[in-house]
Amino acid sequence: MIRVVLCDDHAVVRRGVRDTLMEATDIRVVGEADSYPMLREVLRREKPDVLLLDVDLPGRSGLEILAVLQEEGNPVRTVMVSMYPEDQYAIRCLRAGAMGYLNKGGDPQALIAAVRTVAQGRKYITPEIAELLANHLQAPESGELHDSLSERELQTLRLIASGKKLSQIAEALMISPKTVSVYRARVLEKLGLSNNAELTVYAIRNKLV
Questions:
Q1: Where does residue 41 rank: exposed (0-12), middle (13-18), buried (19+ CB within 10 A)?
Q2: pLDDT digit string (tens) for 120-148?
Q3: What is the pLDDT of residues 189-205, one digit of tens each?
Q4: CA 30 to chain centre
Q5: Over 70: is that where the pLDDT of 117 sits?
Q6: Integer Cα distance of 46 and 162 in angstroms
Q7: How far is 17 from 79, CA to CA, in rounded Å?
Q8: What is the CA radius of gyration of the chain?
Q9: Which end of the chain has less Cβ packing within 10 Å, N or C?
């Protein structure tokens, strides 16, 4: 039996994923979490084989959690799940140590296939991700400027481009407004931009929002 833990801050999403996985007789959801503190407790208690981890979580993001799990040597095999298209996050997640990447808008049956694949110690690669990887191999120097952003910096960029105020961004990321300003300054510097308007245009042109 493949033991799975779900981590997503939306209960309705967790329910949909759980209902889909229940169709497979060899998979059992043994725990759920909506945040990093809760996830730590569930992982400690259940010791699952596979973790389905949302990229966008309040406070510590999915990619940051993945980095912590990697540093700690946690053996759980992680599949990142996101509302963002493959071309925005898939390669970033795989580089960070994820065993697979799934788009929330994709085929629900892909969840079952992904869980079974990574439980066997193999990476789950969709045709879309395979094409992205092939393109990166062919042109390794052609990465986008935002590829150099850290996870927090990318989150800040997305939220600014979505029209969020500094205080709202601070609340969403559970950090201080001063820290948000630091991330904003880093983003502007790395992307060679001057203000929020230019950040918004960049994000829209690169389909980051």
A1: exposed
A2: 999 998 888 888 777 766 554 556 778 88
A3: 988 888 898 889 888 88
A4: 21
A5: yes
A6: 37
A7: 13
A8: 17
A9: N
